[in-house]
Amino acid sequence: MRLLHTLLLAVLLSFLTINCSDSEELAPEVITDDVVATDDGPTEEADLEALVLTDVSYGDDPLQVYDIYLPAGRKATKTKTIILIHGGGWVEGDKEDVTAFIDLVQSQHPDHAVVNMNYVLADPPSVPAFPNQFLDVQAVVDQLDDTHEELSFLNEYGFIGLSAGAHLAMMYDYTYNTQDQIKFVANIVGPADFTDPFYADEPGFEQYLDALTDESAYPANTNLAEALSPAIVANVDSSPTLQFYGNEDPLVPLTNGQRLDTALSNNNVPHIFTIYDGGHGNWDEASYLDLRTKIGQYIDLYLAIEE
């Protein structure tokens, strides 16, 4: 039975998230960096200790913050960064929901930095999601670019997005990543095509999408369902993309993954499309192990740290 109609009218797609509340949060600890001093002043990074900065502001809104986890021994010339983007149907959720992925990256790739970001949640119609949330991702990337030398990491990034966060990650990469700083996107049950009949045929969906969108930010008569769909805006410059979908997902249908898979194939974008038995992220242990393995392989392939 399809549940989207109830979801749209009752909870504004707020269940589009993966619950990671059982994971333990890493205890934040701020450690001061060291540099090698010469007669000309600080020049080279020494063997820097790990550094964690929490709730770093990147804008005026209290939700415009991120945590950054910098590894020991990092270098401005080689240490690359994974950016995590939480889900929540664009209207709820928090970076604390995805702390399990910090452990995933740090355990398998201890030399990478991790950024776990919040973004301004939509409160339609007064506070729209689009393009504001894409621009929040842009603001985080811009601030990381501005501080990467000071904090000693390289400004090359990979995205891991969950549900609505995966949608934001794909949309940012496919439309805003003009400098090719994003090297891959891991899309975990992300909405990918709002022209899919699963969405488009639902009563009230067009009005809901309108409410989520600042239409003044788009040209007149823009087809929002197309403009906001990663499967429609994907192009030859899109970054390599990992896709993970459930074959019984009542919120983001498997057809969304299939449509994105076709679009990436048509544009010759490297990608992997993985289907698990189950719904919106509620998969078995073997599936989660496979997901971890494939994300790790993508990090090794597209965001490798060169010695």
Précis, in short:
This protein has helices at residues 4-11, 99-108, 132-151, 164-176, 197-200, 205-212, 224-227, 230-233, 254-266, 285-302, and strands at residues 35-38, 41-45, 51-57, 65-70, 81-85, 113-117, 157-162, 182-188, 241-246, 271-276. The chain has 307 residues and is of the alpha/beta class. It has one domain (4-302): Rossmann fold (3-Layer(aba) Sandwich).
How are the SSEs placed, and which strands pair?
Blueprint: H1 4-11, E1 35-38, E2 41-45, E3 51-57, E4 65-70, E5 81-85, H2 99-108, E6 113-117, H3 132-151, E7 157-162, H4 164-176, E8 182-188, H5 197-200, H6 205-212, H7 224-227, H8 230-233, E9 241-246, H9 254-266, E10 271-276, H10 285-302
Parallel strand pairs: 5-6, 5-7, 7-8, 8-9, 9-10
Antiparallel strand pairs: 1-2, 3-4, 4-6
Helix pairs in contact: 3-4
Pfam families: BD-FAE
GO molecular function: hydrolase activity
Organism: Dokdonia donghaensis DSW-1
Structural write-up:
Keywords: Hydrolase, Signal. Residues 67-264 form the BD-FAE-like domain. It comes from Dokdonia donghaensis DSW-1. One of its GO terms (molecular function) is hydrolase activity. This is Alpha/beta hydrolase. This protein is of the alpha/beta class and 307 residues long. The protein has one domain (4-302): 3-Layer(aba) Sandwich (Rossmann fold). 33% of the residues lie in helices and 19% in strands. The protein has 10 helices and 10 strands. The strands form 2 sheets. An 8-stranded mixed β-sheet has the order 3-4-6-5-7-8-9-10, with helices on both faces. It has a two-stranded antiparallel sheet with strand order 1-2. Strand 3 (51-57) and strand 4 form a beta hairpin. It is globular and about 60 Å long. The N and C termini lie far apart (52 Å). Mean pLDDT is 88; it is low at 1-43.
